[in-house]
């Protein structure tokens, strides 16, 4: 239980109610990869223990059993509980199609003395590629409707006082600042709420401020900020061509999506500050 902070840990959301056989499925490389990454994180608990202890520990993982007279059960469950946050927040196991009982089967096999199916490094690479492929598939499936995005931008452009750049970025100033204007090489201190055309918020600073390098921002954001002065507030509407393009940002921004940033420019700092 001493290595959990350093190792990507995986299974308990699949383990806690497991009651099936632990047969291996040799065709499922994802499950083998997950088990191969997970196993080193429990070896400190198993090192030097008897095979009887290991068998009880494996049963704790497999069955979710809790017997106060058999400490290995309790330790297996405690270890599994520490895995849950990682599974829920980082692995997206259900989305990737991982099989909980197959993973448990591999783990029990390793605890029983069988060799790992993959090295920890190769297993991590396999899982990472699976996640990237899943995100790419999700991104392709979540394309914004071009007509909806055009109508969203057109409505913004028709607003009184709106300014439209040659790239189609729409800026509506709500409060005109009196400070410096952002420029290449500067750092901006901003607070903002970012949403899609349907009004769903995908990012926000929550009332606090963040420091952003002007040069690192998407072109639409640069164009919007370049019309503002510190102390100002504006709504910046960004077409996908000046934002995240046809690919979007997997899992967050659909491909082809227009964006709205409700922006407050708190301060502008030059590279010499």
Question: What features would you describe in this structure?
Answer:
With 273 residues, this protein is of the alpha+beta class. It contains ten helices and seven strands. Strands 1, 2, 3, 4, 5, 6 and 7 form a seven-stranded antiparallel beta sheet that branches. Helix 2 packs across helix 7, helix 2 crosses helix 8 and helix 4 runs antiparallel to helix 7. The N terminus is likely disordered.
* Total DSSP E strands: 7
Beta-strand fraction estimate: 15-25%
Estimated structural class = alpha+beta
Q: In terms of per-residue confidence, which ranges show pLDDT below 50 for 5 or more consecutive residues?
A: 1-27
List the helices and strands and how they pair.
Blueprint lengths: L11 H4 L13 H10 L4 H4 L4 H13 L7 H21 L1 H4 L3 H12 L8 H22 L4 H12 L5 E2 L5 E6 L11 E10 L4 E4 L5 E4 L5 H7 L7 E6 L20 E11 L4
Antiparallel strand pairs: 1-2, 2-6, 3-4, 3-5, 3-7, 6-7
Helix pairs in contact: 2-7, 2-8, 4-5, 4-7
Key words describing this protein structure:
273 residues; alpha+beta; 10 helices; 7 strands; elongated
Provide a concise account of the structure shown.
This protein is α+β, with helices and mostly antiparallel strands and 273 residues long. Helix content is 40%, strand content 16%.
